[in-house]
Amino acid sequence: MKNPPPASRPQSLTLRHGRSEQVSLEDGAVSLTQGGVRRRIPLTAVEEARVVDGRSLDIVLTAAPGQVATTYRFTSRNPAALDVFRNAVNAARPRRDGNTARVDGDSLVEVVARETGVRLRDDMPRVRLLIGGVLYLAGLVLMFVAGDGDAVLYWAFGGVTLAGVVAAFEIVKGLWLRIGLRGRGVTVMATYDLSGDARKAYRFTDTQGVEHRVPIGFDAKSNQYAEQMRVTYDPSRPERAATVLPMSIILAQTSGIVLLGIPALAFTLYVFLYLPVKVLFL
């Protein structure tokens, strides 16, 4: 019978969130993958691991007296798994007391290059756009072959209204998020950041000292970006965040959705759902 592994050797554990975020407890370190970057956090740099609101795991690093400790946060929908991971990290990290000298744990963190899986995920919007373009052209050819001139015109104009519907959907998502953040959201100043990838984003630090990087939504995009912008986030789920927009813009967006978005949706559904059936079978 083989001898059991030493108690000081941490058990290998892995938690995943979505398609790109992952945290693992390996031999001597915590491996954290977020935003396309994988970090190796030595256990010697960890002050403690803690679970916040049953949703998030905070890896708090050591810090010199008077300095703010760097904290990395990982979100999961499995509270039991978070508790197991927290207990494993706390059991594996070095023992310290109040007299033990602390160093800046963030200086011990090793940043690893972007992973292939994240690059594939980042390419998915282009893949979806390519598939959609092929299907649109195939439908246009079908209308030509069927010899229905009106159907060809409807189909061509339907491409324009479809783009408008997609834009309206993104705006509705942003408005819905802002409604959900009213009354419970925390507003902070965020800094414009383009260091992670080609997607424009803002970086902010929550009230717990945890840093987050949030992509700018379609409804907040413009050609010129300010150095800073106010961002409202959900304190229980900081990844749910939205830039603060003036009320005039919100009213204009709402009016545009009612006056233009709904008619565009109706016409788009007619073109891409009913029209092919009419041309082929009716």
What does this structure look like?
With 282 residues, the protein is of the alpha+beta class. The protein is 40% helix and 27% strand. A five-stranded antiparallel β-sheet has the order 1-2-3-4-8, covered by helices on one side. Strands 11-10-9-12-13 form a five-stranded antiparallel β-sheet, with helices on one face. The longest helix is centred in the last third of the chain and has 35 residues, at 247-281. The chain is elongated. The N and C termini lie far apart (75 Å). The model is unreliable at 1-11 and 116-120 (pLDDT under 50).
SSE inventory with pairings:
Elements: E1 13-17, E2 21-26, E3 29-34, E4 37-42, E5 46-52, E6 56-61, E7 71-75, H1 79-92, E8 110-112, H2 116-146, H3 149-181, E9 186-193, E10 201-205, E11 211-215, E12 228-234, E13 237-243, H4 247-281
Antiparallel strand pairs: 1-2, 2-3, 3-4, 4-8, 5-6, 6-7, 9-10, 9-12, 10-11, 12-13
List keywords for this structure.
elongated; disordered N terminus; 282 residues; alpha+beta; 5-stranded antiparallel sheet; single chain
| Low-confidence region ranges | 1-11, 116-120
The main β sheet shows up as: 5 strands, antiparallel
Distance between the termini: 75 Å
Structural class based on helices, strands and sheet pairing? alpha+beta
User: Strand tally, please?
Assistant: 13
Overall residue-averaged pLDDT value: 81
Name the helix and strand elements from N-terminus to C-terminus, one letter apiece.
EEEEEEEHEHHEEEEEH
Output the number of helix runs. Answer: 4
